[in-house]
Design goal:
With about 200 residues, the protein is of the alpha+beta class. The protein contains six helices and seven strands, in the order βααβααβββαββα. The chain has a seven-stranded antiparallel β-sheet with strand order 2-3-4-5-1-6-7, sandwiched between helices. Strand 6 and strand 7 form a beta hairpin. The longest helix has 24 residues. It is globular and about 50 Å long. About 20% of the residues are buried.
Length: about 200
């Protein structure tokens, strides 16, 4: 599970939820053009300069081709996006940069100071992407769109609350597995029509 934030190229010229929803959820169906590759590289370079903790994932086109039953050239055409991941030990963030959008993903791991630090960094990433290529922001968790030049995303409360709920749920699963009685031999199964 993760908190996902979309950056998108607006056709309207202002943040709009309907447009953001339409554009961000359908772009993965399109092939990335040579011009879009230039945009991807521009964003990736600016983000890596701001945060040297980012590492760019290197696609193994030979392996992709083998797994998908296509040739290497087709694999290179299909996988033209960039994927940036923070280094081990840094606050975990992943950014996928597509043809006309970017997706920032934060795992539900952090609370308190670390959660605030992650969101502060994400707001900086959003400002950089806006400055470089003019993308607006859509936060599906809050249902809002933003212009990062004018305001920051305000999903920290939702993120922290969800992280706390996720942690409680995982802890309850651990307790259930520890407290579960150990049974040996066959277990008696109820008939399918019995509800008790």
């Amino acid at each position: 599970m993760s908190y996902d934030i979309y950056c998108y190229r607006s056709e309207l010229g202002y943040p709009d939820v309907d447009e953001a929803t339409r554009l961000t959820y359908h772009e993965d169906e399109e092939m990335i053009s040579d011009d879009q590759v230039k945009t991807i590289e521009k964003i990736a370079k600016a983000l890596a300069e701001y945060n040297p903790d980012f590492n760019r994932f290197q696609f193994d086109y030979t392996q992709i081709a083998a797994l998908q039953g296509i040739n290497v050239e087709e694999a290179q055409r299909q996988f033209r996006h960039a994927e940036l991941n923070t280094s081990e030990g840094a606050l975990v963030t992943q950014i996928q940069i597509m043809g006309s959008s970017a997706l920032i993903t934060i795992p539900y791991w952090y609370i308190g100071k670390n959660a605030a630090m992650v969101f502060a960094k994400v707001n900086q990433y959003l400002k950089i992407i806006r400055k470089e290529v003019g993308y607006f922001v859509f936060d599906p968790q809050t249902g809002k769109t933003y212009d990062p030049e004018k305001e920051d995303i305000d999903g920290l409360f939702i993120y922290t609350a969800t992280t706390e709920q996720t942690n409680k749920y995982q802890e309850s699963l651990k307790l259930q597995s520890v407290d579960a009685p150990k049974k040996s031999g066959k277990t008696k199964q109820k008939s399918w029509w019995k509800f008790w």
